[in-house]
Specification:
Layout: E1 10-14, E2 19-24, E3 27-32, E4 57-63, E5 67-71, E6 99-104, E7 107-110, E8 118-124, E9 127-135, E10 148-157, E11 161-171, E12 179-185, E13 191-196, E14 199-204, E15 207-213, E16 227-229, E17 234-242, E18 249-254
Antiparallel strand pairs: 1-2, 2-3, 3-4, 4-5, 6-7, 6-12, 8-9, 9-10, 10-11, 11-18, 12-17, 13-14, 14-15, 15-18, 16-17
């Protein structure tokens, strides 16, 4: 990626916390590749633990009119500080991290668990661009015992839209399905409309977010209108699609 003489947006990197910032037009975002483990017993490979988002995730996406659209949670909600945390009561929850995910056997592998992901940032042709490469892992950072799976993300932020390009490469045991999951911040009461197999819109108080994909089968049906995560305390609409191996799949967000 070449940096032009006239910057189209603003980017900055805080290497100590593995966080990249982006600002262009009405969009603000962060991309995260932090590699410090918050819960120490994860380092010994204990299962069922959870930590911060990593893996080159688009951990925050904010629009000046529509408000927060992506806000990353813990990879797995865990009562690390029992006196300072709430317990879940009712309702469905999930990690609020945009990610590639697939489940096989008793394990779930996610792109946001890779603390060795490589992120490159720059500007090109009126866009801020991030390129991410990593390997799918469990929350305890273990790799697949059968097969292997790498992932590749490209994020393009321009004044008019944000595009995510996701690719999964390698092989997985059948019949495991690989999914791209985008938990989009949306309060109960905001109208969610599946306009076509490849288009969804969410009507917000100050405008409408439209989400498009070129995936062959489009977006999956939204089974539950909303999910909730105590940290950061947002409701989201879990938008997902099947990600075929070795094929770029694009998702575009427009305000």
């Amino acid at each position: 990626l070449q940096m032009p003489n006239r910057c189209v947006g603003l980017t900055d990197t805080f290497h100590g916390i593995g966080t990249h910032l982006a600002a262009i037009g009405p969009w603000r975002g962060t991309v995260t590749e932090y590699d410090w483990e918050y819960v120490e017993d994860v380092q010994s490979g204990s299962s069922g633990a959870g930590g911060h988002a990593s893996g080159g995730a688009l951990s925050t996406l904010y629009h000046r009119l529509l408000g927060p659209l992506f806000t990353a949670s813990m990879t797995h909600y865990r009562m690390v500080e029992i006196s300072n945390q709430q317990q879940y009561r009712d309702g469905r929850t999930m990690p609020l991290i945009p990610r590639i995910e697939f489940a096989y056997g008793n394990e779930t592998y996610m792109s946001c668990n890779d603390y060795k992901a490589v992120v490159k940032a720059g500007q090109s042709s009126g866009e801020i661009v991030f390129i991410v490469d990593g390997r799918m892992q469990t929350v305890a950072h273990t790799l697949m015992k059968e097969g292997d799976l790498t992932y590749h993300f490209v994020y393009r932020l321009s004044k008019s839209e944000v595009e995510l390009v996701a690719t999964a490469n390698g092989h997985v045991p059948e019949p495991a399905l690989i999914r791209l999951i985008l938990p989009v911040v949306s309060r109960v009461g905001e109208r969610v409309e599946h306009l076509s197999p490849g288009s969804i819109q969410i009507v917000k108080p100050q405008g409408t977010l439209r989400i498009h994909t070129d995936a062959t089968d489009g977006f999956e049906a939204i089974r539950d209108a909303h999910v909730f995560n105590l940290v950061p305390g947002f409701e989201c609409v879990p938008i997902s699609l099947i990600l075929p191996l070795a094929k770029e799949t694009r998702v575009r967000l427009e305000a």
